[in-house]
Specification:
Length: 714
């Protein structure tokens, strides 16, 4: 266990715990009160890892702790447990289960009010959630969470805080795994600079060693073998100097060096490194983990290559020999301008999370080093925008506005199918082409805004076979969708608000429809060194929970009125048009409910009608989505609407031929409403089993704390 991380855990726990570990301070006078002690929980978890018993004991221990913290009503304690669980599940390759933990942690943090302020708890939770999503290969979501974490970290951590290094390390993994090696190296070098600057003794610091290993792998992916070898050997040297060979992270350094050796065709050394790494992984984490399986696969490839090369000479001590020689070969200075993967402090809220290095090393197979250099094919407008920014926008700012490089945000957000990631060949007939947005503070925009816009417009109009872009009138002038904006102006052009409404102004939130909020919070942010744009966007993402609950109540009310009540009545009257519109209202309300139940701070908002089902299908395909099966059921309703409302023999009006469709529509509506009640019960939003959803509204509204009339039904 790393001492720095234990201290960090205690700081995190102390920020929200009842007191300095005093169980008796909680619910004094109530002998039957359920309590949860964060310090005791962390000590117990540390003991499990210290005994290398995590493979068998950590899972049940964490699951019981979640139950205990929830029963005690200790939100802060539960958030600590969830952060620990994310790290452990990731180390075990339990990515499916981890999606639910991530979503639960973000929703809990939002309920605690952490998302609207600057706190270490929110910053570290964001890092852990992002890393879990990255490990599950949910790269877009991971990158967005890391960007939010950058904003939070910049506001609460000092420049040499190791959690900043962890953030750079983890973000670099996203870049590495999405074929952006140069950006990965830049993040890692910055991480290495931070941990070295904060270290009492960099020559024996496990986090410095981890950063060297990760940088070695990023360099290897870019085919820079000599420098990769130096950093991999330097990591082993640090473990030797600090007598850290018994640390779980030693497996990362061994496997990293082995991977470099494989690329250098030093197959005997690669075999030795992987064998030794496997022994450490098995001892610390067990065989039933991604770490063990991937490293074992790497070993198998190295052994095959060794056999094919006819090399039967054991060179078991060669890696250690290289490490011992590395001190004289490597200078102490590092380039602070370039960096990439993961440090042992990456997941800063838990001892279970220190395994990230093993994951960082073992996710790359030995043959991956030469595969990451080819430019990815452009498959979407967001990819095109990012590439265009990298090729022209970023260099233009560096050359013409060097003093503003650390102040300008870039990305693509707003109106247009590509901002949602739904564009295809059909979408490219208008308003499509190489473009991006640049966002400035009001002060910076007043100084350089017009000049920067002119420079943006002077950039090449064609790029990678796309363009020039043909803009429709609705995307020009005041409604333009790209170029240079003051941050407040940008959000005001979409929402009417320069910044998100205050949490105490629910009537303003209710005036913003979900499609508007979707347009303000979609897309990707490529760079935001100040964090100013991400902070404003996060404000629009973080819908107050009272507003969300009020909308949930409204949606289930419409589902009851339109689907459960009016569809059968209109069909009985023979008014096919009214029945069809009732089905439409039911579908619309239900689609909105799915997003609200899953919480917009996590999954975003339901977009406007054209893309509602595209968004709903994508959400339903995600691991751990609540009410995931509803999407297919809603499509069934729409498919059967014609036969239900106007069907008959031969699809002529009237007749008994519509009966099967009517029966299926009716049963589908009932099934959806029953699933909604089950979910409301799981969420603790109702105590009732009543399936007519109108009667569920009072139970949901019991959880609305505000007395504002606009949040409550009559």
């Amino acid at each position: 266990m790393v001492v720095d991380e234990n201290a960090l855990l205690q700081q995190f726990a102390a920020q929200f715990a009842h007191g300095p570990g005093d169980l008796d301070d909680t619910n004094v006078g109530d002998d039957d009160a359920v309590t949860f002690n964060v310090d005791d929980f962390l000590k117990g978890l540390d003991d499990i890892f210290d005994r290398h018993a995590a493979a068998k004991e950590a899972g049940p221990y964490l699951e019981q702790a979640m139950i205990d913290a929830e029963n005690a009503g200790d939100d802060a304690g539960l958030l600590t447990v969830l952060n620990e669980t994310m790290g452990f599940y990731r180390s075990q390759g339990r990515h499916t289960e981890n999606q639910w933990i991530v979503q639960r942690a973000i929703e809990l943090a939002a309920r605690m009010g952490l998302t609207r302020g600057a706190s270490e708890a929110w910053a570290t939770t964001l890092i852990n959630c992002a890393t879990a999503m990255r490990a599950a290969h949910q790269y877009d979501q991971a990158e967005d969470l890391y960007r939010q974490a950058q904003d939070a970290c910049a506001r609460v951590f000092s420049p040499t805080d190791r959690r900043l290094a962890a953030l750079h390390n983890n973000l670099s993994m996203v870049y590495s795994e999405t074929n952006r090696p140069q950006q990965a190296q830049a993040e890692l070098r910055e991480a290495l600079r931070i941990v070295e600057a904060s270290s009492v003794n960099p020559d024996a610091d496990i986090d410095v060693a981890s950063s060297h290993t990760n940088l070695a792998l990023a360099l290897l992916a870019d085919n820079k073998l000599d420098e990769a070898h130096e950093h991999a050997a330097r990591a082993l040297d640090i473990y030797r100097t600090g007598h850290l060979e018994h640390s779980a992270h030693f497996a990362s350094a061994l496997a990293g060096f082995a991977q470099v050796c494989f690329a250098e065709q030093r197959y005997a050394d690669a075999v030795d490194g992987y064998q030794r790494a496997l022994a450490v992984i098995e001892e610390c984490y067990g065989k039933n983990t991604d770490y063990w399986r991937i490293t074992a696969d790497n070993l198998q490839q190295a052994e095959a290559a060794l056999h094919a090369a006819g090399d039967t000479v054991s060179t078991a001590s060669k890696a250690e020999s290289d490490a011992n020689q590395s001190k004289s070969n490597i200078g102490s200075d590092t380039d602070a301008n370039t960096g990439a993967n993961v440090a042992s402090s990456a997941n800063v809220t838990g001892s279970a999370n220190v395994t990230d290095n093993a994951n960082a090393v073992s996710t790359d197979t030995p043959t991956a080093a030469t595969a990451a250099t080819a430019a990815p094919a452009i498959r979407s407008g967001l990819q095109l925008a990012r590439a265009y920014w990298q090729a022209y926008g970023k260099p233009m700012i560096a050359e013409r506005y060097p003093e503003y490089q650390g102040r300008i945000a870039a990305g693509l957000v707003g109106h247009g199918s590509e901002c949602y990631g739904f564009d295809d060949e059909i979408s490219r007939d208008h308003d499509f082409g190489p473009r991006f947005c640049l966002w400035l503070t009001d002060e910076d925009y007043a100084v350089i805004g017009e000049r920067l816009q002119a420079d943006y417009e002077a950039l090449p109009s064609t790029f990678m076979g796309f363009g020039p872009r043909t803009s429709t009138p609705r995307a020009q002038g005041a409604n333009r969708r790209d170029g240079v904006f003051a941050i407040g102006d940008f959000f005001e052009s979409i929402t009417g608000y320069r910044q998100a409404p205050d949490g105490n102004a629910p009537h303003e939130w209710l005036a913003l429809d979900e499609a508007t909020l979707a347009a303000a919070t979609n897309g990707e942010v490529f760079a935001d060194p100040l964090g100013a744009f991400l902070a404003e966007r996060q404000g629009f993402k973080t819908m107050p929970d009272d507003v969300r609950l009020a909308l949930i109540s409204q949606r289930i009310g419409m589902m009851a009125q339109a689907g459960q009540y009016n569809v059968p009545r209109m069909l009985k009257r023979g008014d096919g048009a009214a029945a069809w519109l009732s089905i439409h209202e039911f579908v619309q309300a239900t689609a909105s409910l799915v997003f609200l139940i899953n919480n917009p701070v996590t999954v975003g908002y339901l977009p406007y009608y054209k893309w509602q089902f595209a968004a709903l299908r994508r959400l339903s395909g995600r691991i751990s989505t609540r009410l995931a099966g509803v999407c297919e059921q809603l499509e069934t309703l729409l498919r059967l609407s014609s036969a239900t409302c106007y069907g008959g023999a031969g699809f002529g009006e009237g007749g008994k031929g519509a009966a099967p469709a009517v029966a299926q529509v009716s049963s589908t509506i009932d099934d959806i409403c029953s699933a909604v009640v089950d979910e409301l019960q799981r969420e603790g939003l109702t105590r009732s089993s009543e399936t007519f959803l109108e009667w569920q509204r009072p139970y949901v509204e019991e959880h609305i704390h505000s007395t504002e009339a606009c949040l409550h039904s009559l």
